[in-house]
Design goal:
The complex is a heterodimer of chains A (593) and B (449). Chain A is mainly alpha-helical and 593 residues long. Chain A has 27 helices and 10 strands. Chain A has helices at residues 2-9, 27-30, 38-49, 63-78, 98-109, 139-158, 160-166, 177-196, 202-217, 222-235, 237-240, 260-271, 278-285, 292-303, 309-319, 340-359, 366-369, 377-383, 409-414, 423-433, 459-466, 470-485, 519-529, 531-547, 556-568, 573-581, 584-587; strands spanning 94-95, 241-242, 255-257, 372-375, 394-397, 498-499, 502-503, 507-509, 515-517, 588-590. Chain A has a two-stranded antiparallel sheet. A two-stranded antiparallel sheet of chain A has the order 3-10. The two termini of chain A are 41 Å apart. In chain B, the strands form 4 sheets. Chain B has an 8-stranded mixed sheet, with helices on both faces. In chain B, 57% of the residues are buried. The two termini of chain B are 30 Å apart. Chain B folds into 2 domains: 11-198 and 264-429, Alkaline Phosphatase, subunit A (3-Layer(aba) Sandwich); 202-263. With 449 residues, chain B is α/β, with parallel strands linked by helices. Classes of the chains: A mainly alpha (593), B alpha/beta (449). At the A-B interface, helix 6, helix 9, helix 10, helix 11 and helix 15 of A face strand 6, helix 10, helix 11 and strand 9 of B.
């Protein structure tokens, strides 16, 4: 079927040596080795998913034909021979994002100034705000970097503790000029090493010293000299960017292992959203930061550090889109129970579930299936759960009323419209964020809803009418079934039996024919039947976040091996993280020349 | 060019102007600045304002054309500035269409708005649009002011998730692009805009000798520019693209230090600066408008952009009785109730525009006023939010560009006339010579009669 579709719609232009744009499609059906064409396969999948091909003026496959072709290629990719490909991929030099900047300054100086809160917001790509390709640096941000650097320098000189952390050495004899100069030079170089997260070469040390001398020549006071130095270091590209140099002599077949200092930074920005600590730097200096054993040991140590809460705020906050909650405001007339306090509690609940599974190294599947959660009084009342009092969150047995993040107020709220639930949004959210099977965008020229006469009946009946169009049905059948399974939760996640006068019917049939009756049933099916897809999805999202780049077909093998590792170890959270930090894309870099 | 060294515009006065109740004739009090700016030839300013999700065209397009046209229901708040207004109907942004790239009209509607260029469909790697008209102008004439341009907005970029069908959020939350891969971030916090324009006035800085401070600052800039230069040869291709942005930023800062007009207004620091971002949407928009006016008035810049909201924005407008999200509503399916609500939102945005334009008009510059000496484009990159079409766009041009535009008319152009032709005509009026912008095919005829 899929081959027929490709033959019919693609082969006219995309076969043989003279294929349009050099893109041959025929190898998909004839040649067994997709491994030799990873970039091409990426491209073909993309244009099919985004409906960029066939071109608008050519005959178009219908929705079902398109989706089946995509699924067929995906299926073929599952037999991908990982032994034959070793491509760690290339991460574009990453600018520190706002969170990373704040945390890095905090750990570098001991001052929690949060100056980056005033920087322009970082653009999001591939679902996260730490993607090298997307983090641009407009002139206004350069201005802000310089202003912030000066301000940090001021604050450091004002605070004895910070000054000591930044410049730990002191001359024994302040009148001994030689000694004073030597100490200043050593202080400057050790500060720059910490800020740049690597050793300096002799030339760099000399240039830093020259900068101080220039200030000295300009009759600056000692404090001003040190301030100038701090400003320059904190505005340098070596501080602002996470540089992984691309020296041709380091590469064998276009690939090199990262050095131990680079590994220290990759680990610390992944797990802490901040610079490496002394211990990581020590290990890097001793050349000990590249064996799997050592990396795994560091993961354990780092996850038990309070700084690991960055992973919850920044990874979970973006993967599950908890950060978007802040901008939502349900209709106060329809949802008088809602306010900012409830919103905060909702976000906290999901963060705490994620945190507890991470801290206790439990199965990642519990994110979907946990029969417990964390509630304060307000949220417990919202859920109709008795026996929780006060503002402190506590672990609560849900007694079969709800299960997993899908029934958290946070997720139910952020997948709703301000005035009502949106089964389509909920279904789409599950496909995109829990199963990594995002539905393709709607085909162009979708008939306008309601143009042909007002549709009547319940929301479900209306959606069913719209699905009568087979082009729409191919994706909506998936999205809507999941969404309607959650209809017992209103737009702010409270339980309901009816929507207006209509009684809720929470039953449905999933593609593949499994029927369910209500949200608990639905989640049970997800946990049983979609374990692999969910594990794969979380692995994809976390690897994207860990690397700071979008993933391609070449990363498929890394993902498969992470999923295998997890299946062998009861899906424990730390296994996911350890599999990522020991994977080739995390430990190696491809040349970008 | 205005020198602000001797200006009487005190920080206190300016801050009062930032308050929400702006019926005060505060601008009169600062007329010495306006006069200073108006001396010799008053410069021509350009501003571009973006609104998301299209509009209800039935309530937007005036029924009659030419002078004395009848204001449509949505445009009625512009009555006080009707003579300064040109309603331009019929223009198209062809590069906002899919052209083979599938869904994502909202993201494209913003990225194409001032660039006229087809954005590359990517969620991360190799972002590309085109240089936007404001930045073309900024590059050519921005050197004459302290800030070559000012980018303002109300919504920060999105915090998580994806913005529109395979397009990175960079496309949805920016309209200014300084190069084809370089969105220019926008500032949404009025307090920070003010401090950037007029200085924070830290006492520790005031008592130090200006000369020494500048020398140290210069040595820092030299140092980091040198760092960047040395790094260049050690990086891959895409890394170097990033480093280019860094170097451009450093040069821009260097230039500003070199500019002798870099003197903020006289400073009176014992006044509480507005505390960040106002909670009310209208207050927020109006403060940003105030700052734009102030920046023009003091000749701190002559080019500004502003996004009233990001592309595809879904905030509700409860204050005016619209509880639903703007984007959700825009898929109205010709439902009359929804159309009415969208029209209410359109009207609300036009009221804010009217606030800005009336304010500009109230500022005298020689024989004219600030609005006369400006060209303010207002519009959306979508026409009907339900159909997602990029032709027959709602576009307004306010101000007479220093007397070069015969405003006060509603003019209809042939369908498919590029919006970029309007931009070309505008660039002519600020003396910028460029072969084309985006998909421009020439000039827009008939702006002057």
């Amino acid at each position: 079927m899929a081959v027929r579709t490709l033959t019919k719609y693609c082969y006219d232009c995309h076969t043989g040596d003279k294929a349009e744009g050099g893109v041959r499609v025929d190898f998909l059906a004839t040649d067994g080795k997709l491994e030799d064409h990873v970039e091409l396969v990426d491209k073909i999948l993309l244009v099919l998913k985004e409906q960029q091909m066939p071109p608008a003026d050519a005959e178009q496959p219908d929705g079902a034909e398109r989706v089946q072709s995509i699924e067929w290629i995906e299926q073929r990719l599952r037999q991908f021979d990982c032994g034959s490909v070793s491509r760690p991929g290339r991460v574009t030099m990453r600018r520190l994002n706002r969170t990373e900047y704040n945390n890095t300054v905090r750990d570098l100086t001991g001052l929690d100034l949060k100056l980056a809160n005033d920087f322009p917001s970082d653009d999001v790509g591939n679902g996260f705000d730490n993607i090298g390709d997307v983090l641009s640096l407009p002139p206004i941000l350069m201005e802000k970097y310089l202003t912030a650097a000066k301000q940090i320098a001021d604050e450091v000189m004002k605070s004895p503790d910070a000054a000591k952390k930044v410049f730990p050495r002191q001359a024994n004899d302040p009148n001994n000029v030689d000694e004073v100069v030597e100490v200043a030079r050593a202080n400057a170089s050790s500060f720059a090493q910490r800020a740049f997260r690597r050793p300096l070469d002799a030339d760099e040390t000399e240039r830093l010293f020259n900068l101080m001398r220039l200030a000295w020549d300009a009759n600056a006071k000692k404090e001003e000299i040190m301030q100038t130095l701090i400003t320059a270091v904190l505005a340098s590209p070596h501080f602002i960017y996470r540089v992984e140099e691309d020296d041709p002599q380091d590469f064998v077949d276009g690939v090199r292992p990262l050095n131990d200092f680079e590994m220290a930074s990759r680990l610390s920005y992944f797990l802490w959203s901040s610079m490496p600590d002394d211990r990581l730097v020590e290990l890097a200096k001793e050349g000990k930061l590249h064996t799997a054993e050592q990396l795994n040991a560091e993961v354990d140590r780092m996850l038990s550090d309070p700084k690991a809460k960055a992973l919850v705020e920044n990874f979970a906050g973006q993967w599950l889109q908890l950060r978007d909650l802040e901008a939502l405001s349900p209709d106060p007339v329809k949802f008088a129970a809602f306010d900012a306090t409830l919103r905060r509690s909702m976000r906290r609940e999901t963060e705490l579930l994620f945190t507890s599974i991470l801290d206790e190294n439990r199965s990642i599947l519990e994110l979907l299936s946990a029969s417990y959660t964390y509630l304060d009084e307000r949220l417990a009342k919202h859920y109709g759960i008795e026996g929780v009092s006060g503002n402190e969150f506590q672990k609560v047995d849900l007694m079969g009323k709800r299960r997993g993040v899908l029934m958290h107020g946070s997720i139910l709220l952020l997948t709703s419209n301000p005035t009502r639930t949106s089964p389509v949004k909920r279904g789409k959210w599950v496909l995109e964020n829990l199963l990594a099977e995002p539905p393709p965008p709607p085909p162009p020229n979708v008939p306008e809803l309601g143009a042909a006469g007002e549709t009547l009946g319940t929301l479900r009946q209306q959606m069913e009418q719209h699905r009568a169009n087979p082009n729409c049905a191919v994706c909506h059948v998936k999205m809507d079934a999941v969404g309607f399974g959650l209809e017992n939760f209103d737009a702010i996640g409270a339980w309901r039996e009816a929507d207006g006068r209509e009684k809720i019917d929470p039953s449905g049939i999933l593609p593949g024919g499994r029927t369910f009756n209500g949200p608990l049933d639905l989640v049970q099916i997800l946990v049983e039947d979609k374990k692999v897809e969910f594990t794969r999805c979380l692995s994809l999202k976390m690897l994207t976040y860990a690397l700071g780049r979008g993933l391609g077909v070449a990363d498929r093998c890394t993902i498969s091996s992470i999923v295998d590792n997890l299946a062998k170890d009861n899906y424990r959270f730390s296994t996911l993280i350890k599999s990522i930090v020991t994977s080739p894309p995390f430990t190696h870099q491809e040349s970008g020349r | 060019m205005s020198s602000l060294q001797n200006s009487k515009l005190s920080r206190r006065t300016v801050l009062r102007g930032l308050g929400v109740s702006l019926a005060l004739p505060w601008l009169e009090a600062t007329s010495s600045v306006a006069k200073a700016a108006a001396v010799a030839s008053s410069p021509t300013r350009m501003a571009f304002i973006f609104v998301p999700n299209g509009v209800v065209m039935n309530n937007w397009v005036p029924k009659t054309e030419g002078y004395g046209f009848e204001l449509s229901p949505t445009l009625r708040p512009l009555a006080p500035v009707q003579d300064d207004l040109m309603v331009i109907t019929g223009l198209t942004h062809d590069k906002g269409r899919a052209n083979g790239d599938g869904a994502g009209d909202h993201a494209r509607s913003a990225s194409v708005f001032l660039t006229g260029s087809q954005p590359r469909k990517t969620d991360g790697e190799l972002i590309r649009s085109g240089m936007s008209v404001d930045q073309v102008a900024a590059k050519a004439v921005g050197q004459r002011t302290r800030f070559s341009s000012l980018e303002l907005g109300v919504d920060p970029g999105r915090m998580a998730g994806n913005c529109d069908s395979g397009y990175s959020c960079a496309y949805s939350s920016n309209i200014s692009w300084s190069g084809e891969s370089n969105p220019v971030g926008k500032e949404v916090n009025p307090k920070l805009v003010f401090e950037r324009l007029f200085g924070g006035g830290k006492p520790s800085e005031v008592d130090k000798s200006q000369q020494q401070r500048e020398a140290l600052q210069k040595s820092v800039l030299d140092f980091i520019a040198d760092d960047a230069k040395r790094l260049q040869s050690k990086l891959g291709r895409n890394d170097n693209r990033k480093l280019d942005e860094y170097m451009t930023g450093v040069r821009e800062v260097e230039r500003r230090i070199g500019t002798r007009t870099a003197k903020p207004a006289d400073i009176n620091v014992d006044y509480a600066i507005p505390d960040g971002i106002p909670g009310d949407y209208q207050d927020h928009i109006r403060m940003m408008c105030d700052l734009m006016v102030l920046a023009f008035q003091t000749d701190s810049t002559r080019i500004a952009t502003m996004m009233f909201a990001n592309a595809g924005d879904n905030k509700n407008y409860r204050k005016i009785g619209v509880a639903e999200g703007h984007h959700d509503l825009s898929h109205h399916g010709d439902n009359p109730e929804k159309l009415e609500k969208i029209s209410q939102i359109n009207l609300f945005h036009i009221q804010q525009l009217s606030y800005l334009l009336t304010k500009m008009k109230s500022i005298r510059e020689g024989d004219r006023n600030l609005l006369d000496n400006s060209m303010v484009v207002y519009g959306s990159g979508l026409s009907d939010g339900n159909r997602h079409n990029h032709d027959n766009l709602p576009i307004l041009l306010a101000g007479s560009g220093g007397g070069t535009i015969d405003s006060g008319r509603h003019v209809r152009y042939d369908l498919e006339t590029p919006v970029c032709n309007l931009f070309m005509s505008m660039l002519d009026r600020v003396g910028v010579d460029t072969p084309f912008i985006g998909d421009s095919t020439g000039r827009l005829p008939g702006l002057s009669l």
